[in-house]
Design brief:
Layout lengths: L2 E6 L7 H8 L5 E4 L8 E5 L2 E5 L12 E4 L4 E2 L1 H13 L7 E4 L3 E2 L2 H14 L11 H9 L12 H15 L10 H15 L3 E2 L1 H10 L4 E4 L23 H6 L8 E9 L2 E3 L12 H9 L12 E3 L1 E2 H11 L3 E5 L9 E10 L2 E3 L6 H6 L1 E8 L16 H14 L3 E5 L7 E3 L6
Parallel strand pairs: 1-10, 1-11, 2-5, 2-10, 5-7, 6-8, 7-9, 11-15, 14-16, 15-19
Antiparallel strand pairs: 3-4, 12-13, 16-17, 16-18, 19-20
Helix pairs in contact: 3-4, 5-6
The structure holds guanosine-5'-diphosphate (GDP), 6-O-phosphoryl inosine monophosphate and magnesium ion.
The site of magnesium ion (MG) has 6 residues, from loops.
Length: 424
């Protein structure tokens, strides 16, 4: 059976964790393919809330194998802490597999991430300070340490001597000694040993046996290093192209791409955001939607739904179906604005402007839709939704040209209206 990709259609935090948890009922493997513990994916099951950073959102189901692919940068300390936390919550984590080619996040990456941000001052990216950018820089510079290096102490020391003695010498006084780092990481190596494998081969064999694989993106389209709002992006490829690269699954195995989007838009960190609302509307979205970062606790910036961005996400990712989340958050608005295009220096843009100067200064134009002003969190069928809420969903479908296969009306798994085929 083929593979499905889940991708964030905005700036992250669209509800990928919740949707992956729902799709988990239909698949055998859930794979993280990029990013690291900068991600924060939330799953709510009754009284229990699970916040996952590195572990795929299928881990709650014993029948699913959770794979951390080669494209992920892994801080083993964080991974083990997450496993301990899940175990304390009664979750069986024996089905986690970790690529031997995944790169490691090291203590110096975290120090450099912070130092880089401090240097940028008011121009800072607003990173999560998890060392993600520097880890990917080392990977591209061919100076990175990979999971497999943990099982060759001589090589580990040799590589560390080079990077710590040269590239990261500025942090010598803040870092533990090389010996201390080696012994710490060798300790992690022992604990993660049962998980480490050739995950590309594992997934290939599963696909050949007719099993279904779900590739779970972190971050979102507009944070993609190539296609996002550069330089205010993350350092990896959350888009669907990154899914095959970061998992080692052949591109021809992917037959569907589900884009996750909020009924409005949020962003954490710096960078342009044309439909951002600095007024009481934005504040209300943040309060009702509890828009605080899962990983850093930072307040998320909020604004109206933007069809230009969605059309762009559909194009870049080849999205075949959409899942619309947090529709319930808009329930108390009398009117709801929808951005259908931008204007800049007298020119109209209906597609995402490739020139970042245009995007930064883009003036959104809006159409107004009538709100529904009633609680929809109990809706389980599309026909349970008030007409105005149905109209909003239909309008987004019209503007994007893609069917909305699921509508989420609350954080719980069952607070979901399934309208179409989630996986073929
Ligand atoms: P992710 O990074 O894309 O997995 O998203 P996050 O977990 O960081 O943020 C989404 C937040 O919204 C989480 O707290 C979810 O529990 C919550 N959530 C998801 N879907 C809905 C929904 O339909 N309504 C409401 N009110 N909350 C939702
Ligand atoms: P999930 O998977 C939202 C943002 C940071 C910052 C930029 C670069 O939960 O959707 P980084 O630490 O990656 O170098 O920071 O990217 N960012 C996220 N925003 N959701 C995320 O993940 C994010 N991961 C990184 O806020 O603007
Ligand atoms: Mg998140």
């Amino acid at each position: 059976m083929p593979a499905t990709v889940i991708v964030g259609a905005q700036w992250g935090d669209e509800g990928k964790g919740k949707l992956t948890d729902i799709l988990a009922d239909h698949v055998d493997y859930v794979v993280r393919y990029q990013g690291g513990d900068n991600a924060g994916h939330t799953i709510v099951h009754g009284d229990e809330t699970f916040k996952l950073h590195l572990i795929p959102s299928g881990v709650l189901y014993p029948g699913i194998t959770s794979v951390i692919g080669n494209g992920v940068v892994v801080n083993p300390k964080v991974l083990l802490a997450e496993i301990d936390e899940l175990n304390a919550q009664g979750v069986d984590t024996s089905n986690i597999r970790l690529s031997n080619n995944a790169h490691l996040v090291m203590p110096y990456h975290i120090l450099l991430d912070r130092a880089n941000e401090e240097k940028l001052g008011s121009g800072q990216i607003g990173t999560t300070h998890k060392g993600i950018g520097p880890a990917y820089v080392d990977k591209a510079s061919r100076l990175g340490l990979r999971v497999q290096d943990l099982y060759n102490e001589d090589l580990l020391r040799e590589k560390l001597e080079i990077v710590m003695g040269d590239r990261y010498s500025q942090f010598a006084s803040e870092l533990p000694s090389l010996d201390v780092i080696v012994s710490e990481y060798l300790g992690y190596a022992e604990r993660i040993r049962p998980m480490v494998t050739d995950t590309s081969l594992l997934l290939h064999r599963a696909l050949m046996q007719g099993q279904r694989v779900l590739l779970e993106g972190a971050q979102g389209t507009l944070l993609d290093i190539d296609h996002g709002t550069y330089p205010f992006v993350t350092s990896s490829s959350p888009c669907s192209g990154g899914a095959v690269e970061g998992s080692g699954v052949g591109v021809t195995h992917v037959d569907s791409v589900i884009g996750i989007l909020k009924a409005y838009v949020t962003r954490v960190g710096s960078g342009p955001f044309p439909t951002e609302q600095f007024n009481s509307d934005g504040q209300k979205m943040g309060e009702i939607g509890q828009e605080f970062g899962t990983t850093t606790g930072r307040k998320r910036r909020c604004g109206w739904f933007d069809a230009v961005l969605l059309r762009y996400a559909v194009r870049i990712n080849g999205i075949t179906g959409l899942a619309l989340t947090k529709l319930d958050v808009l329930s108390t608005f009398d009117t709801i604005s929808v951005c259908t295009g931008y204007r800049h220096e007298g020119i109209e843009y209906s597609e995402f402007p490739a020139d970042q100067r245009v995007f930064q200064a883009a003036e959104p134009h809006y159409e107004q839709l009538t709100g529904w002003n009633e609680d929809i969190s109990g809706a389980r069928k599309f026909s349970d939704l008030p007409q105005a809420a149905q109209d909003y969903v239909h309008r987004i479908e019209e503007l994007s040209g893609v069917p909305i296969v699921a509508v989420s009306v609350g954080p719980e798994k069952d607070q979901t209206i399934i309208r179409g085929e989630l996986v073929p």
